[in-house]
Amino acid sequence: MRPNNFWKTSSLISLILAGVLVVMALLVNMTPLGNSMWLRVFFGISALNFTLRASIPLILGALSGILCERSGIINIGIEGMMLAGAFGGFVAKVATNGWPLTASLIFSVLIALAIGGLMGLLHATLSIRFRMDQIISGTVIIILATGFTAYLFDRNAVAEGKFNALPIPGLAQIPVIGPVFFDNPPITYLTLLLVVIIHVALFHTRWGLRTRAVGEHPRAADTVGINVNRYRYVNTTMGGMLAGLAGAFLVLEAVGQFQEGMTAGRGFISLAAMIFGNWNPFGALGASLLFGYTQALQNELLLAGFTDIPRQFVSMLPYVVTIIAVSGFVGRVRPPAAEGKVYETEGSSE
Amino acid sequence: MSTENIPVLETRGITKRFPGVVANEDVNLTLHKGEILALLGENGAGKSTLMNIIYGLYQPTEGEILVNGTPVQMNNPSDAIALGIGMVHQHFQLVPVMTVAENIMLGSESVKNGLLDTRAVAARISELSQRYNLDIDPYAIIEDLPVGARQRVEIVKTLYRNADILILDEPTAVLTPQEIEGLFEVMTLLKNQGKSIIFITHKLKEVLQVADRITVLRQGKTVGEADPETATQNSLAALMVGREVILTVEKKPANPQGVVLAVEDLAARNDLGDPALRGVSFDVRAGEIVGVAGVQGNGQTELVEVVTGLRHADAGEVHINGQRMTNATPRAITQAAASCHVPEDRHAYGMVSPYPVAENLVLNTYNLVPYSHGINVDTRAIRSHATELVKQYDVRTPSIDTPGGSLSGGNQQKMVVAREFSRDLNLLIAAQPTRGIDVGSIEFIHNQIVAKRDNGVAVLLISSELDEIMALSDRIAVMYKGEIIGIVPRAEATREGLGLLMAGVKDERVPV
């Protein structure tokens, strides 16, 4: 199958999935169909809300991976960058507890972005300047982040307050769609916006064209005067910032506190979402929503007291779906051709 | 006007040194407006280095470059592009998954309101493609295009950047004869519209056909200029190689003995699962060269693969020295039957590019005494073997520890030939043994093949160059659509007769 056709089918799948979910949700919440317990578990507003909340860090992580890998740098360190960003955001929040809440939160997000960006820069430096294997470098990032955050974490520190939902006037009143899409905290809106922005940037701007060229055929980019490694540094740093933002979401919007290892594999699932989405922002969005939905389902099934199957099996659901999705599709997607390879310019032998 | 006499491009005393190698030494070159300058030289003569200097990819160690009479300093390709220099690289610099328009605008994008203005780019491409008769679709994806079209995209890429000086690096190496004709027409059209072209090649015939002036490079130095009106292939070859080159192969009459390779009713499919061989039968005797001619893609590749054990035969028999070798493993065939194989794609099948020359030279014998004892590899034996072969076969390499992939094409091929020829053989299978290599190496390899024949080896030669087949073979088999359509003794073969057979026209007088 040609990659272009595949990209069309994969976005078609996500569109159909989203469409079915919304239609079912409308039916369930507005007609007597809602009397069925099962349908409420699968399509209730709370399931949809949970889906979106669970998807946000996955979407950000996948976008982070897309930025890095489209420029040719494999980033398996998203998990670590996310965790570092979460920790940075938490420390900043605790330090500025005395400030007005909004200022303190925005400051904390900026710190999370900065920490994530620094981790990205570190990854880029290791892989480009020091030519380290990018898988190893990514692993280093994860170990570094896990170790440092656990060591530095003060269990008595408390962050006061988190982002609240900002209902969008008018739109938030639409039944079902309103409460799901238009009654969310700011990072959620920002993330959905970022999907569109990165899609447009990647496929319709100079930066995007050059980024893709650098990731597919760096020599071709070099011979028309593009600085390959500069693009890789910049993109990997920006990718780190997006992972940092995912961390900020966890601490400042979802949970409100930091916990050791709180990313809990989200960085890896977002890698799966990136692959499943064929390195495209909308593909990644669809894949993240699918994975998010399985998490919501797990949650809703447990809440509804569903006990016919041991709860451990229900808890496995998101991971099983991830494995099936990735193993079923991984041979059919096409990664950027030059990813993982050090680029040496023609003159570098001097 | 006085500006008419100023060359559009001039290099003065260009010297480029790499650690341990002088790639260019005191190179002087002039290019005038509206001319095609052929830069002729063997592989490794420093043509590509010189062009990379002119394109800003390398900086010269010494010397200067003048564009329109003004000395210029180029630190990267952007500087060269800004000066109106464009380059069509030997290995195309195109992103396969992107469209023609995206590839062409890359690095010089037109942007409207922050977004790429693909429509404007496509319009400009169509205009250029019409003006220079290049026939390309701006919205096609590169990987869907045939090689000839990709090359036209590269040409448009330079024209899009308003290049007045075009460097074409070995542009004909990858093209079919028809595509080469098309390219020459485009080059002439470009020249007539005032563009200046540097045409890099090592093919003598092409130079005489299309160039206005010829500069010859040897071992990094300019060794002479020639006028295509008066030069001959022989005089150019002598300039290139530095000595008289015999373009025709001298050989004694063949003295064929018993049958070594016998192929009967062989049938096999290609990678797509379509029939590629449909009942091929022939034999090769000791002490003769059987050449297989044919337009590429008529089953020659599959024939070699089946005979060497790389492809499964669906039907038919292969016998070597009377032993049944149908679908035997490649190792059984190379060792038990003492046959050797010079593969047509040396990078994919002939060598392990990152391995040092010494290891590449024992790929077929590393598991045998004296190179191996039990599970131990005898490095000393491998090294002394390599030192000897490098000398005997004149493989030009800095050392036997240099990775094989960093040698020039001709020397890589000599390395493969050295390894394959250096055993006691009964059967030699050479597929495109001189593809993409220079005149000096071709002469050398041809002589080696003839020497093997004279020693009583049976030789099966596959080549898409009819000249090569005619020069070497004692009998010529022509393949057409998976069949041997005719086998002609060399003495009775004519170029026209073979051409007809290659096109599938069967001559009743020729015994099959």
Please characterize this protein's 3D structure:
The complex is a heterodimer of chains A (350) and B (512). By secondary structure, chain A is mainly alpha-helical. Chain A is built from 14 helices and two strands. Chain A has helices at 3-30, 37-43, 45-70, 78-95, 101-129, 134-152, 177-181, 186-204, 206-216, 218-223, 228-255, 266-276, 281-303, 311-329; strands at residues 166-167, 183-184. In chain A, helix 3 (45-70) packs antiparallel against helix 13 and helix 8 packs across helix 9 (206-216). Chain B is 32% helix and 26% strand. Chain B is built from 17 helices and 24 strands. The interface between A and B is medium-sized, with 27 and 32 residues.
What attributes does this structure have?
heterodimer, A: mainly alpha, 2 strands, 71% helix, globular, B: 512 residues, alpha/beta, Rossmann fold, 3 domains, six-stranded mixed sheet
Number of beta-strand segments of chain A:
2
Rg estimate of chain A, integer Å: 21 Å
- In round numbers, the mean pLDDT of chain A is 87
Task: Let me know the number of strands of chain B.
Answer: 24
Class by helix and strand content of chain B?
alpha/beta
Low confidence ranges of chain A: 1-6
The largest sheet of chain B is: 6 strands, mixed
Largest interface: A-B, 27 and 32 residues
Q: Report the sheet-strand fraction of chain B.
A: 25-35%
Q: Write down the Rg of chain B.
A: 25 Å
Give the biggest sheet of chain A: 2 strands, antiparallel
* Tally of structural domains of chain A: 1
CATH superfamily of the largest domain in chain B: P-loop containing nucleotide triphosphate hydrolases
Tally of DSSP helical segments of chain A = 14
Work out the helicity level of chain B. 25-40%
